Amino acid sequence: MVTFKHKHCLGIQDLSPAEITTVLQTAESFIEISTREVKKVPTLRGKTIINLFFEPSTRTRSSFELAAKRLSADIVNFNNQASSVIKGESFKDTILNLEAMNPDALIIRHPSSGAPHFATTFCRSHIINAGDGAHEHPTQALLDAFTIKQEKKNFQDLKVVIVGDILHSRVARSNIFLLRKMGSRVVCVGPPSLLPLEFRQFGVEIDFNFDRAIEGAEVIMMLRIQMERQEKNYFPSIREYRNLYSLTEKRFNRAKKNAIIMHPGPINRGVEISADLADSAKSVILKQVENGIAIRMAVLYLLLGGKEGEATD
Amino acid sequence: MDSHKIKRVLHRMTTEIIERNRNLKNLFIVGIRTRGIYLGKRISKLIKELEKVDIPVGVLDITLYRDDFSRLEAQHMVKKTEINFPVTKKDILLVDDVLFTGRTIRAAMDSLIDLGRPQTIQLLVLVDRGHRELPIRADYVGKFLPTSKRELVQVRLKEVDGSEEVLITEPAKIK
Asked: Most buried residue, A30, A199, A276, B34, by most Cβ within 10 Å?
């Protein structure tokens, strides 16, 4: 195992394949803790972490909170709606004020790409990106990789299809970076308006035809149609989208026999995925959520554990 | 200590364990990573040979319970804890290679107690080299080795190291 020498966790792009493997192996050791009767180890006792979410979230925020608590760290939740941001306090001032309270790490989700990176320019604390705009969502990609590894053992030459609104998806970007680094074959599928051809530079294949792309796929990763971003009419109607890009039983049967279905949540039942498939044995959607805690414990452990000030970046 | 001596010592300690634990069915072995696991497995095998009782061996990784955690020089890799039996009301035999400051054992006991409430916890070590920093003692000791604090005690087992011996070395000789 290589040591993980980063001060921050901002994106998959900064990680080497060996470091990704280290995170996954560390998470492996943390899985068991969440199954104990006493779901807690004293490792990060005395560390303070602030969850700063400038965008709504169910899974990521509570998953980070539980991960921190199971490592005995103290965690405070910052809620955008109930904060002075409403009174016009800037992002930088908000963070500087919270930093004045001496936390060890800040977990930041923000609608603008690069917000956590900006925070690193004036912060002492460790910064963890919990999703920035349409850029990256590293812990989601890591937990997806962990889930894939559990099911498929190996990433090399695995055919993964990512379907939906690639344009707006930070989950898709982080997953593409990670899967390509680990040697998987990635095919992106979606309507041309939501699937920029520029993505080819990341080493992925582009296909506008879901029925064709799904042939032989071992992992099918469905993305949420972001209703809140559809005011620009990226596609004519939900019905048309559903006809072409929804994961139905019929389409799924074209994939490899042991294919698994993934979704980062929240799902729009009956839009990007049929409700029956989302609940079927082929779906690992809830497994992803469960694994999220172990992955976030691993990331917190690797960043906050060990001696202060020896990190390289 | 050579392989012959290690073997005899394990035999003696196994008899002591059998003597002290009338109800062997309630006994479970927990080996502390890494060498404690293999010593634990050998003892389990010896008990099986002598008494025909299967004693399960669990694996404990104490990294998350270290008291010097935030002061460690290098990052320490966490490995898996694998204890697939309930520890509550069981007699647990902790196994480690060397007993030194006692801090590892403190961490191991905390970790075990987080998993449940054992009836008793006993400690077996191959070597007790002294210099305790905590009020901890072993129930079964393979050999007392008087050492200076500066020296290093290395236990090598064929399962991990390819050879079978206990060495006392000066720090300079270790890479």
From this structure: A30
Nearest CB to A28; choose among B65, B80, B110: B80
> Quick check: is B152 in a domain?
no
Question: Is B28 among the domain residues?
Answer: yes
Q: How do beta strands A74-79 and B152-156 pair?
A: unpaired
CB contact under 8 A, B77 and A26: yes
A41: nearest CB among B65, B72, B73? B65
Assign B127 to helix, strand or coil: strand
Label residue B126 exposed, middle or buried (CB < 10 Å: 0-12, 13-18, 19+).
Answer: buried
Query: Using CA atoms, how far apart are residues B43 and A56, in angstroms rounded to an integer?
Result: 55
Please tell me if residue A78 touches chain B, with a CB cutoff of 8 Å.
no
Name the CATH code of domain A12-137+290-304 (choices 3.40.50.150, 3.40.50.1370, 2.160.10.10, 3.10.250.10).
3.40.50.1370
The residues near A250 (Cβ < 8 Å, ≥ 6 apart) are none
User: Which amino acid is it at A124?
Assistant: R
Best residue in B59, B60, B77 to probe A by mutation, most A CBs within 10 Å?
A: B77
* Structural domains of chain B, count: 1
Shortest Cα–Cα distance, B78 to chain A (Å) = 6
- CB distance B114–A308 less than 8 Å? no
CATH no. for A138-289: 3.40.50.1370
* Chain B partners within 8 Å of A19 (Cβ): none
pLDDT in tens, chain A (313 residues): 788 889 999 999 999 999 999 999 999 999 999 988 889 999 999 999 999 999 988 899 999 999 999 999 999 998 877 777 778 889 999 999 999 999 999 999 999 999 999 999 999 999 999 999 999 999 999 999 999 999 999 999 999 999 999 999 999 999 999 999 999 999 999 999 999 999 999 999 999 999 999 999 999 999 998 877 666 778 888 899 999 999 999 999 999 999 999 999 999 999 999 999 999 999 999 999 999 999 999 999 999 986 544 444 4
- pTM comes to 0.89
| Residue A306 to residue B74, Cβ atoms within 8 A | yes
